[in-house]
Protein 1
Amino acid sequence: MEDIFEGLNSRQKEAVTSTEGRIRVVAGAGTGKTKALTHRYAYIVNVLGIDPANILCLTFTNKAAAEMRSRIAGMVHSGDYNDFVCTIHGFCVKFLRKEIYRLGFPKSFTVLDEEDCKAIAKEAMDEMGLKRTEKTVKMFLEEIGASKALQGYIGTYMLPGAKVSDNQRKTSKMAAYVSRQMKNYALDFDDLLNLTRYILDRFPEALAWWQEALNYIMVDEAQDCNTDDWDLIERLAGGHRNLFIVGDPDQAIYEWRGARPDLFVNFGSDKDIILDENYRSTPKILDVANCVISNNRNRIPKDLFTRKEEGKPVIHFHGKSETEETDWIISQIRTLRERGVKLNDIAILYRSTYLSRALEQALLNAKIDYTIWGGTRFFERREIKDALSYLRLINNQDDDISFRRIINVPSRKIGRKFMDSLEAAAERDGISLYSALQIHISEFDKPGARAFIDVIEDGKQFALGGSISDLLNRVLEGSGLKKAIREDQDEERLENLDELLSSIKFYERSRSEEEVTLSDYLQDIALYTNDDHRKEAPTLKMMTIHQAKGLEFPFVFITGLSEGIFPNLRTIREWKKNGEEEERRLMYVAITRAEKALFLTESEGYNLSTKMNKYPSRFLAEIKREMVVTEGFIPEELWRGTKNLIHVIDEETDPHRPISFDDDFEEERAAYESPFHIGDTVLHPVFGEGVILSASKDYASFTIEFSSGATRTVRAPFLKLQDIPE
Ligand code: ATP
Ligand code: MG
């Protein structure tokens, strides 16, 4: 059994022993907030003798809850159960299993995930005759979520005795949606919180029971709670008034989802404890973190310090291409491995899920085991499997597995019954499902099935002469797959499809010498799609930065650090200055995950998702040059590109922002206005294709290396931009 006070500083000890009243710990990353919280839990159990059933300990993700449970397990007596170390929604499920009978629900209610909700929304929209082109599923669900916040729906549509007429279902979105849920007593995440609050509001004896039971409540990452979370927490803590919250406003990364860090800042506490020594990262890493976050205006300045040894310099690697970036990462991982570092101690972080694709392929090629935390491997993502199944079926119509996967994706109103008879026909004739469909199509009144055949036949024809990337584009549009995802406004899936397209384009370019056929491509990627990875062995971890919150890893790579990717262009467009600051906090979270070494990487090239050439992220530009060692050559022009982009993006979002270029603004203006930039591929009527190496000060002429090997300086009017892949 660990000594509860061992390895705690005096302020942490104070946090541990301040058990009564409203206590707040405000502190930066890696200062031991979570450690103090877990030790406090053990203190309350081991020293005060409180039963864990009387302590509620809330955190933000399931991963963080699991981590916390295992930390606590090492400190409290075995046999003590810590069921109430969980997320807020996890708590609500436990609460409702006990209390939901009050509303006449069975305690065996089910919980809907995001996909389930979308499916129900689609059915409801169909029933109401709402066209999905006019109202997307996402908008529909957002409206439902907003009206659910008012809680009126519970009494009107959910409680026993609530009768929903056919007419109501046709006219009211809420009626249509909720009555579908109620068929299976299925609750979505909003319901979990709403029903819990509803019961606490209306059943004083339930409120009294829980307020009495929960002697102590603790909340980690409290800066990311929203108003409903706060309402619930405050209500539960209303009895004993022992509420302990910890958080860091600099790590608030969920304002886009309604988090209210201001409620954390304005929490009325009896005592505040401030921690400022970071125990996680080396000074070099911490300097970079402090430097980046100091660029946020909307913050209370604080600097962390550490007594750790200097450590290795933070490295910024710049690659000429994405391949160079991933190759470099692989070589660094190999070097670490040679020095005895365990794979388990390495994490690769990125801003958006689609960015995992290039890294995954590189890791698979290098035979390095990896796990994606809180997500799915790129080639196992649904839309990727769907898209590839279309290509597979076009390549080989005997592929029944692909056929079954996509015949009804997107929906073509093909149900179980139709499939059963098709399977039987194929079996009887000893032919593939696709052939059976073609032969028997006239026997069925199924326009959707006809359309499906058209897509496959058109694809077969096109594949004879067209490129694979064009074929994929054609299939994604022709099949309606992309349209369906667009209607769902599912940006993540769209980004993944763009990424697949962009990887195929790259594949074609890198093999331009030989002719590549569809079947070559499908064979080549089988390595990535058939990978039956071992799960047990310790593996390298990959995850989005949001998933990495609260965690720590000895060696951290932050990849894809290009303007538009990180900070994310969409976030800045949507949330303006606040968006930029939230992205910067996300960068701060990412940097402060690293214990021993930090690698920051980015590369040049074109990004299909942002539809922009890549320039180093503004967050890299904000790091003082002496704080990082740069590997790879970054021409000054690239940094200039970054500045120009910041300028362009900010002008879009904030027209009043003063322009603050330090040097030679004229040149930057010229660069901004020029259609040609360093690294662009251009066409010359005589020399053919070439890449721009440098530009004159006024961006009127360019030095270009042509494919022939010749280097020439050419004036702008003689150049044309090579078609950018759209
Ligand atoms: P974050 O803001 O990222 O959630 P945190 O403030 O919760 O960070 P912890 O995860 O609790 O920080 O601690 C960071 C690291 O520092 C952990 O490895 C922890 O074991 C270690 N640590 C915390 N306090 C001390 C201490 N007093 N002495 C030595 N190590 C400590
Ligand atoms: Mg923590």
Protein 2
Amino acid sequence: MNTRRDFLRKFTVSAFAIPLIPNYSSTALEELYGSINEGPVLRVAIMGLGSYGTRVAEAMQSSKRAKLVGVISGTPSKVKDWQAKYNIPEKNCYNYENFDRIKDNPDIDAVYVITPNSLHHDQVIRVAKAGKHAICEKPMAINAKEGQEMIDACKQANVKLLVGYRMHFEPHTLEIIRMRKDGELGKIMFFQGLCGFRIGDPTQWRLSKELAGGGSMMDIGIYAINGARYMVGEEPIWVTAQETKTDHVKFKEGVDETIQFQLGFPSGAVASCLSTYSMNYLDRFFLNGERGFAELNPSTGYGPIKGRTNKGEIDKPHTVHQTVQMDAMASIIFDGTEPVVPVNGEEGLKDLKIIDAIYLAAKTNQKVPLKL
Ligand code: NAD
């Protein structure tokens, strides 16, 4: 079995090439991620050239192990712009109708799906059928049934399915996980995850049940779910949830504005979380154990992430999350490394099972048992 140390030693990190808070030396980063690995480069095509796709493309410029070589888009003008900016050859450009032909393109290893949530299922399955590794943004799909089908399709095609959980490679996050594993916080009793922002434009796809699959829970609440699992270090066995809505015009039927939810863990630890599209300044994780506490605030934004514990501030390097994530994913795909917290399809599926249960609990006002 690979240890965390093995993983960090094996995978290449290009954080050396990215902008850093000045007081962190490359030695500190080397300590975290190990020495540079000259392994094969993952040649990636991005599907969906929107705001997050753009961020990933920029971050990949600093990656040592992942390179943007192709695009899949429905907007020819964007394709032209990206071709010019990233030097992408015409033969590596596809649209949503013809991208199955990527099967015949030996110059692309993986497709990173960065489109609205409800499209992920069909697009990832098509990527798998084309014989390419699939990297998929969160939420992996809009329910557990779809998630399972995506896992099955990737297994059948013998390709990897990875989910864009960038926080799984974030140094402050990893330090708290280390402290919890090493017993420095004692027996974990409680987690709080507050995740939200005020959403703007009412016409955007994030407020369409059809494209988003839900509301804030699909988009931002998923960070609290995923965080509760990696912070507590257990899988929840029950969920309760309460939904509130102040704006029935903006947040239509099936699009949740605010959901509070609670998770129960086998050890007896509990989590209390908030997911919302109507409050700013909510990006905080708090973990309480019998011997100490750990806090991330902000906890899941693009950074810098800040952390403190009962012992003081967490002193770790700040990284560009997407650069490190892409380096790590290249190593997972090519070297078979295993990250401290998985980013595979099964990990994405667990969050989807919890989301299904949260929606059911909010609707029925019942405690819903979970089996992950
Ligand atoms: P966006 O609206 O900025 O971009 C979406 C892209 O998909 C656009 O280029 C759009 O043209 C394209 N698209 C293709 N088919 C479409 C359709 N039928 N309707 C609407 N757009 C269509 O959205 P985004 O913020 O880039 O989010 C995309 C995905 O990335 C989502 O799943 C989101 O949850 C995820 N995301 C993840 C993070 C993260 O930190 N991991 C951050 C932001 C977004």
Protein 3
Amino acid sequence: MVEKNLDLRSDTVTWPTPEMREAAYKAKLGDDVFGDDPTVNELERIAAEITGKEAGLFVTSGTMGNAVCVLAHTLRGDEIILEHRSHIYVNEVGGLAVMGQLMARTVPGELGWMRPEDVEKAIRADNIHYPRTSLVCVENTHNSAGGIALTPKQLQADWDVAKKHNLGVHMDGARVFNAAVALGVDAKELCKYADTVQICLSKGLSAPVGSVVVGSTDLIKKARKYRKMLGGGMRQAGIIAAPGIIAMTKMVDRLKDDHDNAKLLSEGLQKIGIKVVNQVQTNMVYIDFSPIGWKADDWNKACRKLGWRSQASGTGTRLCTHYGIEREDIKSFLEELGKLVK
Ligand code: TLP
């Protein structure tokens, strides 16, 4: 029996599965700063293997994972290229400027994808007046574009431009397994177009804490040192890495259920008269309830009344499906919501 978790605010709200709790309890431990926590080492090995990279590194969060990778690729004063609504640029507290003393050059994307010609235009020429461009960041799935899965072809196009100019490529793959499942491709096919990839274990994959970053041995060695600098050198971290192993090895296939549930939710909401503003490819549904005359408060109250959590502002919000929400739950939510709207 899946423990119900009727919370649409994000997929970060997921709770660990009973198997994860058990694995945490039984995990073999060591001191990870000394490199001898066997469970962390195993998670890092598995992450590298699944993504086709040389090495992995367990970090506390997606934000830390992106930070250590961006730092590993760059030098103080460099400029980096990011999609203008990317999580690293918008939602990571300006860490790239604070920690890396980096300039951000943003490029508007088409459904989260930066066209290669726009990336190329954003790369600085070698000129005494200009900062050096050193890195291109991509995001897959792209959260604020609507949970959009960037295809291998799209990723390759940006990779080719970056490599033509000797730039690094970092992928914020917080939800890269959602992308792989939605596209029906192996995660390796997506990760091969990035030198480093940050993967969240604590979103749709349901682990309680953490992310892994993967890349070449050299880049991960640098990232490890930055992790220590940021205070992310954890000790008996096997306790939290053990659920991460289950996340990566057993929780990927079920992401399809989340995607199917998001589609069901999207279709049902539209029948009720609520506008869905994104293309629903994965586990996110962005809605606008102004067509039914509701404001954030009406939505929030309705959800609370039905026993669900959702947090809107203005006339819309993002709804995420995840472990703990099943098809039947979505059906009854839609039915009950329909009654409140009429
Ligand atoms: N995203 C969270 C919020 O921060 C918006 C969410 O609810 O979606 N990259 C991407 C693409 C993300 O969506 C997130 C978290 C992160 C990185 C950061 O991960 P954490 O929260 O583990 O630092």
